[in-house]
Amino acid sequence: MTDTFIRHMNKQNIKTLGELKQSGYISRSVKEELRENLIAQLQKSEGGFEGIIGYEDTVIPDLQTAILSRHNILLLGLRGQAKTRIARLLVNLLDEYIPYIEGSELFDDPLNPISWFGHNEVTTKGDATPIAWLHRSERYTEKLATPDVTVADLIGDVDPIKAATLKLTYSDERVLHFGLIPRAHRGIFVINELPDLQARIQVSLFNILQEKDIQIRGFKLRLPLDIQFVFTANPEDYTNRGSIVTPLKDRIESQILTHYPRSVEVSRKITQQEASITPVQRSTVEADGLVKNLVEQIAFEARNSEYVDKKSGVSARLTISAYENLISNAERRMIVNREKNTFVRITDFLGVIPAITGKIELVYEGELEGPAKVANILVGKAIKALLLQYFPDPEKAKKSKAPNPYNEIINWFGNGNTLAINDNLPLQEYKKLLNAVPGLKDVIKQFHPKLTENQQLLLMEFVLHGLAEFSQLNKGFLDNGFAFSDMFNSLFNLEPDEDDIDDDRY
């Protein structure tokens, strides 16, 4: 009898233990089930772990190896590296349905019961024992480790109400109330942030992982629990909040290291997949590839910043939230100006500052600067890094014997002209301001001749920000935008600079 037959026919046709035996059904442990279904998936060249991007050559092969080895798994990595999501996707490797003894709180295997209830049902009813079917979505249990988790939560405790109701003594196994782990029998059990569990609670897991027995109060039960354990942990937790006790680490057979996206392209795919953008926003707000890459570059700059705590990490949630804010900021301007559509501008990155400040942990130097200023510095560094991918290096162009493409722009500001761009400007005013800068549009046409008007305007503003990051222009921060002026003259006037950022605004 094939698994396909069992999957599609058992739920309708098999209602008793006798019918289950006649069907030819063979019990498998959870680890065997995962292993055999993974083998079938690999033989069909199916990817599995849908939605997990950037781990195709690293984490996923290690995870598949651990499953083939029937190991319990520890996913170790900084925050925002999809550890919990990977654990949840393991459910897809389970059979669609499995049979269990109807009424069993531990979902006893009809062919191999482990609880008092299961044994009693099979003993008293034999082949007439009623069978129910459990969907794989119900075979996943997840617990966030917190300092207040108790042994009773995970393993169980004596239930005096049950003892009184059933008129049983406390020496009877039936008075026990099972915790989360026994109730995850024949399924996947995940403990997130394992180091946050108190050491004495971690010790209670020893026997379950090794000897398959549990101890509740004075009871020592030999319950051969059938569970696939998956643990997640942040390496920083080992020194910051707690640690995984050594004997427990020794019992977790495979430790798999996760990581952040290794390229802007991969990071961008993750953000575009996860960002919650409404259909209306997609149809009315144009987001060029440049601004999408800028969002991702901010995270890369943060992970290398001297102001950001590298041990804490910079979650992928930063870029997801930042991109959502970026689109919403442009949408807000469109609504305020009663426009039918718009496109994301560089000034819209003012809207991503709140998404950055809440998702980075600062070191002492960063705390001195303040989260809002650090966020603006990160945006500036991202602009500086990407400018070199689109245009010549302004510093090299200044020293080169060849004509400097930025000369006309820099000279215009050098003659005392200034330019203020706020994020609420209607399109026509925005266009008029940028076109007023001599040579700005020519630079765009010289290096990117085939662009739409919206793309041209975006790059024109981008060049101004880029020149400021290379100290060719001065960029001051306004309440809702930026002011550009000559770098030299700015030393002798009161134009706003980075120190004028109002941290309270964020």
Total tally of structural domains: 2
Q: Quaternary status of these chains?
A: single chain
Shape: elongated
Distance between the termini: 63 Å
Low-confidence runs of at least 5 consecutive residues: 4-9, 494-498, 500-506
**Tell me about the biggest sheet?**
5 strands, parallel
Count of helices?
A: 25
Strand content: 5-15%
Q: List the strand order in the largest sheet.
A: 4-7-10-1-11
The tally of beta strands, per DSSP, is 16
What is the mean pLDDT?
88
Structural class: alpha/beta
Approximately how much helix is present in the residues?
40-55%
Output the radius of gyration. Answer: 30 Å
Condensed summary:
With 506 residues, the protein is α/β, with parallel strands linked by helices.
Descriptive labels:
single chain; 506 residues; Rossmann fold; 25 helices; 16 strands; disordered C terminus
Task: Describe the model.
The protein has 25 helices and 16 strands. The protein is of the alpha/beta class and 506 residues long. The protein has 2 domains: 56-69 and 71-83 and 140-257, 3-Layer(aba) Sandwich (Rossmann fold), CATH 3.40.50; 264-505, no CATH class. The protein has a 5-stranded parallel beta sheet, covered by helices on one side. A hairpin with a 2-residue loop joins strand 8 and strand 9 (219-221).
Give the arrangement of secondary structure elements.
Elements: H1 3-13, H2 17-23, H3 30-43, H4 59-68, E1 73-76, H5 83-89, E2 97-101, H6 116-125, E3 131-135, E4 140-144, H7 151-154, E5 156-158, H8 160-166, E6 176-178, H9 180-183, E7 187-192, H10 199-203, H11 206-210, E8 214-216, E9 219-221, E10 227-233, H12 237-240, H13 246-251, E11 254-257, H14 264-274, H15 279-284, E12 285-286, H16 289-303, H17 317-336, E13 342-343, H18 353-357, H19 364-369, H20 371-390, H21 394-399, H22 407-414, E14 419-422, H23 427-435, H24 440-447, H25 453-469, E15 473-478, E16 481-486
Parallel strand pairs: 1-10, 1-11, 4-7, 7-10, 12-13
Antiparallel strand pairs: 2-3, 5-6, 8-9, 14-16, 15-16
Helix pairs in contact: 14-16, 14-17, 16-17, 16-20, 20-25, 24-25
